Amino acid sequence: MKQKRNWSVLLGAAFLMATSAVGPGFLTQTTVFTQTLAASFGFVILTSIILDIGVQLNVWRVIAVSEKHAQDVANMVLPGLGAFISVLIVLGGLAFNIGNIGGAGLGFNVLFGISPEAGAVIAAAIAIAVFLVKEAGKVMDRFAQVMGLLMIILIVYVAITSSPPVGEAIVKTFAPDKIDLISIITLVGGTVGGYITFAGGHRLLDAGIKGKAALSEVNTSAVSGIMVASIIRIFLFLAALGVVSQGLTLDATNPPASVFKLAAGNIGYKLFGVVMLSAAVTSVIGSAYTSVSFLKSFSKYVEQHENWMIIGFIAVSTTVFIGIGRPVSLLILAGALNGLILPVTLGTILFAAYNKNITGDYKHPVLLTVFGVLVVLVMAYMSGYTLLEQLPQLFS
Fold this sequence. Notes:
Elements: H1 2-21, H2 24-37, H3 41-66, H4 70-77, H5 81-112, H6 116-132, H7 136-161, H8 166-174, H9 181-192, H10 196-206, H11 215-245, H12 255-293, H13 300-304, H14 306-324, H15 328-353, H16 356-359, H17 366-395
Membrane topology: Multi-pass membrane protein
Subcellular location: Membrane
Keywords: Membrane, Transmembrane, Transmembrane helix
C-alpha cells in the first residue's frame, strides 16, 4: 500500500511541475521557434531537456536531503537570502498567473464563444475548487495528471494530422542547420525557471517524501516531470513543423491556435481551446501553490491557512486580469526577473549541496554540480542582458 501511495505522489509532483511549465507562453514559444528554426528546433529541444534534467535533479535532491523548503535552505546559506528569493518567486508567480488566467479565458472563448473575462472567472473558480477540498494535495495531483494526459493525447492527434517530416526532424535534432542560443535559454527558463523549479520538489517535501533514503524516488519524479513537459513540447513541435513545412503561414496574433486549425480544421481549433484551457488552469494551480509555499516559513498564519492563501492568490490574479487586463509593463519586468531567479536559486542550491550543516554527510554528484554551474553562468549572462535591454522600454 505504501508503494502505491508513493507512486501517486511521485507522479503527482512530476505532473504538477510539467503542467506548471506548460502554460500559454510555453505553447506560443514552441510554435514561434519552430516557425523560425524549422526542423533544427529539435536540437534546441534536446539540449534544453538535458539542461532541464540537470537543474531539476540538483534542486529536488537538495530539497529532499535537507528536508527543508528552498527559502529555508537559502536562509541557511546566507541570512535574508530566502526572503529575497521568496519575493522574486511570489512577484513573478503573481505576474505570470495573470497571464495564465488570461490564457484560460481565451480557452473558454475558443470553446464556447464567451468573453475571455467571463472565461477567466470560470477558470479561476475551477482552480479554487481544487483547494476547497479537504485533501487538496491529492486532488491537485490527480487534476494535474488528468489534464497533462489530456494535453498529450490531443497534441499527438494534431501532430499526426499535420504529417510532419519526422525523418528530417530526427536528423536536424543531432545535426542542426543553425544553433540558436537564445532559444535554448528561453526554453530552459520557461520549463524550469521561476516558481516552476520548485513546484514538484516542494510538493514531494509536503507529502513527506524526503531524506537520503528517498533520493531514488526524487530522481524518478524529477526526470518524469521533465519528460512529460518534453513529450508535450516535442509533439507540439512536430505539429507546427508539419504545418510550416507545407508552406502554410501561421497567424502572428495566435501562432499555436493557427497550428491546430491549419492541421485539423475547425475541430483542431476547438482542440486548441481544450489544450489552452488545460495548460492555463494547471499553470494557475501550480503557480499559486508554489508561490504560497515560499511564504509558509515567514508566517505561521500562512502555514495554518495555506489553502485559503492559495485561493486568495488566484482571486487576486483574476481580479487584476479583469480590472486592467494583462499589464504589459509588469509582464515584461516579471519575465526578465523570472530569468534571473534561476541562476540565483540554482547557485544557492549548489552552495547548499556542499554545506554539511544543511545536507549532513550527503555527497552531491560532481556531474550535477558541473551541469548546475554551467546553467547558472549562462542564464545569469542572458537574463542580465535581457533585463538591461527591457528596462528602458519599461520606463519609456
